[in-house]
Amino acid sequence: MANRGRPRSFDRDRALQNLKEVFWSKGYEGAQLNDLTAAAGITPPSFYAAFGSKEAAFREAVDLYVATEGSGALLALEEGATAQASIRAMLASSIDTALGAPQSGGCLLILGAINCRSETEPLRQHLKSIRTNTEKRINARLERGVAEGDLPRTIDTRVLANFYSAVMQGISMQARDGATREDLQALVTPSMAALS
Amino acid sequence: MANRGRPRSFDRDRALQNLKEVFWSKGYEGAQLNDLTAAAGITPPSFYAAFGSKEAAFREAVDLYVATEGSGALLALEEGATAQASIRAMLASSIDTALGAPQSGGCLLILGAINCRSETEPLRQHLKSIRTNTEKRINARLERGVAEGDLPRTIDTRVLANFYSAVMQGISMQARDGATREDLQALVTPSMAALS
DNA sequence: GAAATTATATAAATCGCACTACAGAAAAGG
DNA sequence: CCTTTTCTGTAGTGCGATTTATATAATTTC
Question: At B45, is the pLDDT very low, low, confident or very high (cuts 50, 70, 90)?
Answer without folding.
Answer: very high
